[in-house]
Amino acid sequence: MSAPTYDLGKLHGGLRLDAHKSQSTTQPIMDVPVPGQLVLPISQHVGDPAQPVVGIGEYVLKGQLIAEAHGTLGAPIHASSSGKVVSIEPWPVARRFGEPAPCIVIECDGKDRPVELAEIAPAFDELPPDVLLQKILHGGIVGLGGAVFPTAQKLMQATTCELDYLLLNGVECEPYISCDDVLMRERAAQVLGGAQILMHALSLDRCYVVVESDKPEALHRLAEVMTELDDKRLILKLVPTIYPSGGEDQLVQLVTNLEVPSGGLPSDIGCLVQNVGTAAAIHDWIHDQEPLISRITTITGNGVAAPMNVRARIGTTVADVVNFVGGYTEHASQLIMGGPMTGKSVNTDRVPLVKSTNCVLIMSETPSPGPEIACIRCGDCAAVCPVQLLPQQLFWYACADDEKSMRSYGLTDCIECGCCDLVCPSHIPLTADFRKAKARIRELADEKARAVRARQRFEARNERLERDKLQRERELARQKEHAQAAGPAAIAEILKRKQQQQEDED
Amino acid sequence: MWPAVFTIAAIALIAGLGLSFAARRLPSRPGELTEQVNELLPQTQCAQCGYPGCRPYAEAVVADEAPINLCAPGGDETVRRLADLLGRDVIALAEVAPIGHSVAFIEESLCIGCTHCRSACPVDAIVGAHQLMHTVIQSECTGCELCIAPCPVDCISMRSTP
């Protein structure tokens, strides 16, 4: 194990933010007990929602498959504890547009009875890579850094490219969030075990474990475990504490000094990034046969009595978790699922913890920065933009609803990090506007695709009608020819028959 | 003085030749222009413009037989784009009847299986056999409402999509 290296690439922009992390890292991770009720949304990942495979009234065991992956991009969902499925109904969840989403509700019996494991899991290095990838697919594992992209599909996609490095993302640059930090402190062996499994699955022999410089304890612990493992393929990297260095593309740029192409993926330049939490989840699944049914979440902010990191079952409601950490304080007035920069504000604590919930932030009302005024085109936003976009220009086009210019100015590459909002002297909510503009672009593209399909169907139908008409005409002509060939006597007979028919009808 | 006169005259001549060339070239390809106009139309195939589909309307617009403001589902946005493309003035919609995004829905318990709606659908988005229940393929329905009138039992209604 060598000392961490600093040979870093350059990242444009970014901000140094107040971390607010120490308030939640003073205690060890606590386990939240089995709650009375679990609420499991069927769509906790990017892609198609999972298909429930249990019925109402059915008794399920901890770790049992309750919804299977559906479509080309998806992940299965497992029961986080034992109990009875009481309903499958819309429930408030933390989603962008805030409407309730279908959830499987389980009433727990508190016994936490696990499913019977088949046998002792085979060691991962005895399995061929493709079998290992299939196995990861069945563990319901998704990217735990926040993007919740199904891990198995990401790995399978990456195997089609030529890869050089695996990057383990332990940067966690967003303020308040500390779940990856404590995970690396307490479960460094699992994290690195997961890295070894990933390297085997991808046939890679180089893995950078990247940690931000404000996490000395995690770094120390990782270094210790690396010395124990004595695995030359694992290399520790330190990156400066700057937001948003933990973004996937930004991390790649920091470590390799290569820029991910616009609209591309890190695998295009030979990198695969996985969150440290995902690596630990893969380890738990492959090694201990425990699917992704719990995760470490930071419960923090001045609105909770005792900020800390907890290990909670997926589907535990925020209310249950807050009760566990001692309830709300008098400051509690807003609830954010995720961090202060990229999280989603929700208006009820009935929302469940899902696979993507790395943080639950409960704060007093943030003072309004001031009224939004006109853009003065100072360019501060462009200076901090980590993707080197021109937010002031994009804002201009977003106001004008000019889709073409927004595209050519790279709106689709915006990572919605929120840096431009923070520095804007006119207090323009740029990120929110960009989010809306992106949704609008998607909507327009959908409309366009629909129009193209409708046109194709319309043209195909016209062709068919034309063909049918021709065929009918040909048939008539043929009959006429037949009749004429048969001679005048036959025609007279036909006419007589026709007349008879008409008389009968009358 | 003369060199200046000759230079201006030469520029005018070249520009004139270029313009007359362009003027001859551009209208010589009406098929392409029809294609471009058709691209801008919403492809609902609703026939509200009085033409049996988007393409026939596009042909009429290019041939200057129809004004550009007849497309109700396209709304003002489409009028603006057509005006842009064809170099005409933006005019108000002839009939403001924005459909919004909705799709047809067949009340299946009422359907008698007459196939009238099926043959009225311009995009083949209704399936069903004679004397058997019909249904709408929601993802393909353009919301043109052409199936509503032919239904003898009035079992088709429009429902807005999320």
Keywords, separated by commas or semicolons:
heterodimer, A: 506 residues, alpha/beta, Rossmann fold, 4-stranded antiparallel β-sheet, 37% helix, globular, B: 162 residues, mainly alpha, 3-methyladenine DNA Glycosylase II, Chain A, domain 3, Alpha-Beta Plaits, 2 domains, two-stranded antiparallel ribbon, 5 helices, 4 strands
* Spatial sequence of strands, sheet with the most strands of chain A: 1-14-13-17-15-16
Q: Hey, which two chains have the biggest interface? A: A-B, 13 and 15 residues
Helix percent of chain B reads: 25-40%
Count of individual beta strands of chain A: 17
Q: What is the assigned CATH homologous superfamily of the domain at 120-288 in chain A?
A: NADH-ubiquinone oxidoreductase 51kDa subunit
Named CATH architecture of the domain at 120-288 in chain A: 3-Layer(aba) Sandwich
Helical residue percent band of chain A: 25-40%
